[in-house]
Amino acid sequence: MTEVQLQEFKLDPDSELRFEVESKNEKVVLEVKSGYAELFGTELVKGKPYEFHTGAKVAVFTWHGCTVELRGRTEVSYVAKETPMVVYLNVHAALEQQRVAAEQENTRGPVTMIVGPGDVGKSTLTRILLNYAVRMGRRPIYVDLDVGQGQISVPGTIGALLVERPASIEEGFSQQAPLVYHFGHKSPEENLELYNTIVSRLAEVVAERCENNKKETDSASTSGVIINTCGWIKHAGYKMLTHAAQAFEVDVILVLDNERLYNELKRDMPKFVKVVYLPKSGGVVERSTAARAEVRDARIREYFYGKRTPYYPHSFDVKFSDLKIYKVGAPSLPDSCMPLGMRAEDALTKLVAVQPSAALAHRLLAVTLAAGPDDDVLASNLAGLVTVTAVDMERQTLTILSPQPRPLPNTILLLSELQYMDNH
Ligand code: ADP
């Protein structure tokens, strides 16, 4: 049911206004009229209008009480008094104590990993904890291992970002100089060997950066790391989580809303890892497979065209002969058929040359920074991603949509399974 156009809400301390924008091409404007409020940990400025579009699912929380106005049609809007925000604030306070200890002892800050099934608010809690940390003057590293959503860069990649400012209400965290690695699928399940390889690589580089920062009198190494993960937690998914925990040498694992996972991790993690169970917020909205696919598409569109601040991507032709395109993973053979000293799993991280063809249309290509195909291509972080908008077999060219003007910064490209239809 669609509700009225102008609504005003009086929020008591410790409560939140939740709303969703569902209808197509709808816009809802939010304004704080009095008091103080925050949105997933970012403070809202009084009297400033904030716009939300189709698909937005939002909570405006207040510690002290406030009045909020919504203009436009919301699908749902209600005030909730029961929220886990005090519990989340306590987690932040505990992390903050570890940062202070890290400063005093000149060690690294807490490395925290957030786990749980899908749609329990993992990404939201990641954002809240990062925001609270920067609001205290910290500079935490944000790591996103969720290839299904790809909040840093695009879906099909994992990445890390130094967070120096709170997330913008409408655009999220500033995406300056992220460290991004290619995976090429929507779920780790598609190639666990590759997934674990790039997770280990990312962990190595993040640890190196923390180590380097330690020498400077800067807070990046004592601020710690916050890692978001995907919602696949059973069987091989569980192994993947424990691998990530080991690779990043996590100190804290926050388990949202799954007692079984909590107990398994408590049993299997070394004693020095604190495993903490946290309730999920009643406001977290479950998304259908279709809604997830829409979020993925929207994320890729944003990568090329921006969200609030528009970007102007470039379109140009590249000759087949000027490119070397590879996909990762050769069909795996039984161990008995492998050359001596190679495991069957090794095939899963092998580069296989791809001949350009019409099948490349609409696919994403990751532009690597590798010096050559013999270089460790998977270990090289990405310069960025492009999408193929057209293939001309006669002229032997690809038309490419790229955030950067021509030429491509490198000719070694990795093919992603993800697609983007550019009908902007
Ligand atoms: P996960 O990362 O576990 O899949 P998300 O953090 O992405 O879950 O949350 C799922 C959806 O619920 C998102 O669209 C998010 O904006 C929304 N959401 C999270 N917390 C709240 C809340 N307290 N009120 C309303 N919506 C929320």
SSE sequence, one letter per element: EEEEEEEEEHEHEEEHHEHEHEHEEEEEEE
Spatially, the strands of the biggest sheet line up as 13-12-11-14-10-15-16
Number of strands: 23
Helical/strand content category: alpha+beta
Q: Share of helix among residues?
A: 10-25%
Query: Tally the helices: what do you get?
Result: 7
pLDDT below 50 for ≥5 consecutive residues: which ranges? Answer: none
Say which molecules are bound, naming each kind only once.
adenosine-5'-diphosphate
What is the structure about, briefly put?
By secondary structure, the chain is an alpha+beta fold. It has helices spanning 85-105, 122-135, 192-215, 220-223, 236-247, 259-268, 289-305, and strands spanning 6-11, 15-20, 27-35, 38-39, 42-43, 50-53, 57-62, 66-71, 76-80, 111-115, 141-144, 157-162, 179-182, 225-228, 252-256, 274-278, 314-319, 324-328, 351-353, 363-368, 382-392, 397-402, 412-419.
Key features?
alpha+beta, 29% strand, globular, binds adenosine-5'-diphosphate
Structure description:
The protein is an alpha+beta fold and 424 residues long. 24% of the residues lie in helices and 29% in strands. It has helices at residues 85-105, 122-135, 192-215, 220-223, 236-247, 259-268, 289-305; strands at 6-11, 15-20, 27-35, 38-39, 42-43, 50-53, 57-62, 66-71, 76-80, 111-115, 141-144, 157-162, 179-182, 225-228, 252-256, 274-278, 314-319, 324-328, 351-353, 363-368, 382-392, 397-402, 412-419. Helix 3 (192-215) packs parallel to helix 5. The longest helix has 24 residues, at 192-215. The chain starts with 5 loop residues before the first strand and ends in a 5-residue tail after the last strand. The structure holds adenosine-5'-diphosphate. Residues 18, 57-59, 118-124, 231, 281, 283-285 line the site of adenosine-5'-diphosphate (ADP).
